[in-house]
Design brief:
The complex is a heterodimer of chains A (74) and B (578).
Chain A lengths: L8 E4 L9 H5 L5 E3 L6 E3 L10 H5 L6 E4 L6
Antiparallel strand pairs in A: 1-4, 2-3
Chain B lengths: L5 E10 L3 H12 L4 E4 L16 E2 L10 H11 L6 H21 L11 E3 L10 E3 L9 H10 L4 E4 L2 E8 L8 E8 L5 E11 L31 H9 L3 E2 L5 E6 L7 H6 L3 E2 L16 H13 L6 E3 L13 H11 L3 H11 L8 E9 L6 E3 L11 E3 L4 E2 L5 H22 L7 H15 L9 H15 L3 E2 L1 H17 L9 H26 L12 E2 L7 H4 L1 E8 L2 E8 L7
Parallel strand pairs in B: 1-2, 1-9, 2-6, 9-16, 15-17, 18-19
Antiparallel strand pairs in B: 3-5, 4-5, 7-8, 8-9, 10-15, 10-20, 11-14, 12-13, 13-14, 20-21
Helix pairs in contact in B: 1-4, 1-10, 2-3, 3-10, 5-14, 11-14, 12-13, 12-14, 13-14
Classes of the chains: A alpha+beta (74), B alpha/beta (578).
Chain lengths: 74, 578
Amino acid sequence: MEQTKYRGGIIIDYTRCNGCGKCCEVCPTDIFNINSESYQLTVAYPEECWYCGACIYDCPIDGAIRMELPLACL
Amino acid sequence: MSMKDEYITTDVLVLGGGLAGCFAAIKAAEAGAKVILFEKAEISRSGNGATGLHRIPLIHPDYNHTFEEFAKLNVKFAADICDEDVSYEFAKDTMDRVLDLENYGVKVRNNDGSFTFKPAPDICPGTPVIWGPGPTVWHNLKPTIAKKAMSFPNVNVLNRTAAIGLLTRDGEIGGDVVGAIGLTTRTGQFVICQAKATIMTAGGSYRLARHKDSLYAPTRFIECGCPTNCGEGIVMAYRAGADIVNMEFAKLTTVWKDFVHWGVGPAMALLRPVDAWGRQFQPEPSEEISLSGIGYKRSMNLGYDTLGPDYYDVSPLEGYPEEKGEMQRFLWALENESTSPGYLLWMKERGEDFKKAPVEFEWHPPYLHNNQAGIHMDVDGKSTLDGLYCAGDLTGGGWRHSSGGAFVFGARAGSNAAEYAKKAPKLEINTEQVNAEKERILGATRVNPRDGYSWIELEDKARQIASEYGPPYTNDPKLERGLTHLERIRTRYLPQLYARNPREMLRASEVKAVFTNVEAYLRAALFRKESRAPMASLLRKTEYPARDDANWLKHTLLRYVNGEMTLSTKDVRRLTKK
């Protein structure tokens, strides 16, 4: 059975992300994960995002990471 | 999960690297102490100030109030449940801490050397505080302070290490605090730190009651404050035997409608909350409360019934107080507050424009954050246990001082802990206590997930009980019923909590803290036989509708005695005439 897919959260633009891992380093609620083999960065725990924007502030690349609010907030 | 424990020793151990923890580390290091700091997240972006501040309290007779006046105002807005000495000593130190910030590289003045004073109804009505000089951006205030703390060779920050329990002399409740045990959140390793003095700065709790969307996965962790903070600091101090006060007075906050982040927008807009017909909220005739209190209370009264919608009308800002450009200042603050990206996105997506029309708001359910509820702290930033200092959002006994409280008492706790450490006897940690603390977490790793309950389910059940039975509007039978339910869940289901990995081991520790805080919240509310309305809080009991100063102008005091939560009262402290 496929899991329900929710909109919202932190969205990474993989065409811009350079995989530096800064977001993963600073996130207050530790929602990111970097795969130890492929080094692929993912939002592993989207439901534990505080929407504080630390990852966006500290990302060295413009537009590589952005935020979308869940429908409940819209 | 079977990694070898790490043992370390230090003079001063700081538990939590938020604003208070950073100041504590800096001042302890300046006094020459060897400092270790446990940070659950990563110190440059952790705690309630993670991504910014827009204003800082600064009390000075040249600008606003004498220290005595400020302390008196604090007591008034706290509905008299406030240690006046703490408010007074706080006011005295604010200028020094602002100068510290300036030295650390935070731009706090305008180019001509002046400060910008603006109202902050959420800190102290009628007491202007300083706002950042635009266009300076304070998003990086936290990294700046963290960098200062890390610049000392005698400060060692352990990121992704969460404190899970305090260690006491001979493992006894009420004994001197001799260190703490931490959990490395990404590996599951335990770190046992022996310290001559320990400073608890682990933050308040935003996971006490349910918020209306807390069951829905995408909004579970959208809380008014950092959801990493769930009151473990209060619970650790409680379990070690420290005095915990006024847990019935959880905080209530207004937040933007459907986006439950606390911040400058909701705070400033309390200057003029209006109903659907544009009428400004009025206090109930029997009560003397502040304007922002009216906002808090009115929004609460309307929150779940049919009388809404309620709005913030910020149009008076256009000419408030006298000068022009106030609206721009407000916009500046919105853009500089912690969590601004979310705010600004919320406004854009919903088409809310406070310059054109009032903005809709709602209230956030009770949480624990630097007001009456928390660890009872004295003017030295010390708890009632020897060897244990505290500062920041988890301290109780008085009116809130926001970031300023974290700076002032973080600094005091840091220097006093360093002095204490110079004279403290070397006390051994108790192995049995270490093992018992580890077992509180490891037990969950042995529960088979197929037969167990996740941290999410258990935490939500405890928060459901807090919401359904606890303050602000409650009564004794209701509180007793809530406690019965909590005990049933705690004894029957909490032992079935499972943890499959280090992250869930951390959550296991947090959920246990949530249960203890909910119990404290209900028990303290049951114990207090009156109603009282501090500015950002409320206890309204059906059978005791009036404030009763003759019997209840006191802190409610919680202590952990023989495995039981015991209740009594403690006098509030007042300044004595010199």
